[in-house]
Write a structure and sequence with these properties.
Structural class: mainly alpha
Number of helices: 13
Order of helices and strands: HHHHHHHHHHHHH
Shape: elongated
Helix content: 55-70%
Radius of gyration: 21 Å
């Protein structure tokens, strides 16, 4: 049973786990992901994978609360359930008491709480309250995936767990794409493709769709297949994934893996540019540069046609 219908709403639920005052809890966990510098050319074969972030599911921040209004955190005990420990850990995390939080997360994880396992992995991956340790993060992500069943009930817990599994697959794929230096986790492009494929096709995870598409563009771990890359970029682009919109637009503009339609390509790159400008992040500059270069190459009629496509898209 495919779980992509569960994941979108569940990502927002996951976001609330750690979000607190001034914290927007994103799924940009991988320190292994590569960035595209602004100087990168517009040749699609030279564009590389970007830092992972779930752009299609904006992460809500929980209402800001002063520390004086924070609920009291009870102590762990023999009768404490996994859910209770998880909630304790969440409150401790919000307070900034990271060491106490990870102890409570570990208590819940020991009882099989998937969310707690994912939070511990996330903290090790980012060095958040603990020493940065990609290998420990990898092992927690691996355990989440290895214990995941193939079927999910349409319940709140199942939707949450499906999203955790989806993001764990994404992270494992990123680790295997690059390897973890000095450990037994070696670079394995074929395994990275397999993991990204599970997250992309079984869960509809847009970052996995993007990363898998890049591997098809590069012929990394799979035979080069621009047509399939276009399909994957398109699937993620429809969900609002900015980098996929940029890469899709570039390929349509150039006629790579698909019939050349410069007006439509410019529209997708324009949408990507808007998200890049709104983010204000330096690593998103490449999307703006890609659009600028395409505009310089396009004819006046193509630029006008792109505005028509954009207007219809925005008013659809």
């Amino acid at each position: 049973m495919r779980t992509s219908s569960f994941v979108g709403s569940a990502l927002a639920l996951i976001a609330a786990v750690a979000a607190g005052p001034a914290i927007a809890f994103q799924a940009d966990l991988s320190s292994m992901a590569m960035q595209i510098p602004a100087s990168e050319t517009s040749d699609s074969s030279s564009l590389r994978a970007i830092p992972l972030s779930v752009q299609s599911s904006p992460t809500p921040v929980m209402p800001s609360m002063g520390l004086g209004t924070m609920p009291e955190v009870p102590a762990l005990g023999d009768k404490t359930t996994a859910d209770e420990a998880f909630n304790m850990a969440r409150n401790l995390y919000r307070r900034g008491e990271k060491q106490e939080a990870i102890n409570a997360f570990q208590f819940a994880a020991g009882q099989g709480h998937v969310g707690a396992q994912w939070m511990i992995a996330r903290m090790y991956a980012k060095g958040d309250g603990v020493a940065h340790d990609d290998l420990k993060a990898f092992e927690y992500f691996r355990d989440i995936v290895s214990k995941a069943g193939s079927d999910f009930d349409d319940t709140l817990e199942s939707r949450q767990n499906a999203a955790y599994v989806s993001l764990a697959l994404l992270q494992l794929g990123s680790y295997y794409r690059e390897g973890i230096p000095g450990t037994y986790v070696k670079q394995d492009s074929h395994l990275a493709v397999s993991l990204f494929s599970r997250a992309a096709y079984n869960y509809g995870e847009p970052n996995a769709q993007y990363n898998l598409a890049v591997m098809y563009v590069e012929g990394n771990g799979v035979p080069k297949d621009l047509t399939r890359a276009v399909q994957l970029f398109h699937n993620a682009a429809k969900k609002g994934h900015g980098p996929s919109r940029a890469r899709l637009g570039h390929m349509i503009f150039k006629g790579e893996g698909v019939k050349r339609r410069p007006e439509l390509g410019l529209m997708w790159m324009n949408l990507a540019r808007q998200s890049a400008e709104q983010s204000g992040e330096a690593e998103a500059q490449w999307m703006i540069d890609l659009h600028e270069k395409a505009l310089a190459e396009a004819s006046e009629d193509e630029r006008k046609g792109a505005l028509g496509f954009l207007d219809r898209w925005l008013n659809n």
